[in-house]
Description:
Blueprint: H1 5-11, E1 12-22, E2 29-35, E3 45-51, E4 67-79, E5 88-97, H2 103-112, E6 122-132, E7 135-140, E8 151-156, H3 161-167
Antiparallel strand pairs: 1-6, 2-3, 4-5, 4-6, 7-8
Amino acid sequence: MYLSAKDTKRELFVDTLQYSILRRGGLGLILTEIAGGGRSDGAGITIIEEILENGNAANCGLIPGDSIVALSVVQTNRMSSNDGGADVSEERIDNLSTECLGYDATVAALTSLPPPVAEDEMITLTVKRIRRQPRINVTLQYPPNMNEKDVRIELFAGENLRRAMLARGVKLNDKLVS
């Protein structure tokens, strides 16, 4: 089945989601490049191919096909002051964009982050997920006295029913339609 660009825009949409994953011990993700193919500028599209069963990312909500578009780590170093006073805390925030990067550039971004400073340190992955818009089937039944066959139409969830019926040539007994 061929879809025009207009049909594809209506049928597919992108969700941007964030997931926090424990950093210590690795993420447990297998990545693959689906576009870019070793371009010298590092551009491409890298997606999650697999989530390792016992890895830190298991059961966090990521799914194969998600594309990592940003990484964020907040590190807090706690140090005792030399004069015996209160502990001093220093926070470092790393935000990296990985959107439209090929495999090598995405892995380089992941490995460029400083090592974890705490056992419970988390990394936040921002991902984009493409999904199909849900569809529903509606059967329109005419009153028996009209002697018309039932009409079955397919709509996208949330689509305006009246407008969809008119666009598909369904005759309406409606004062607004001439």
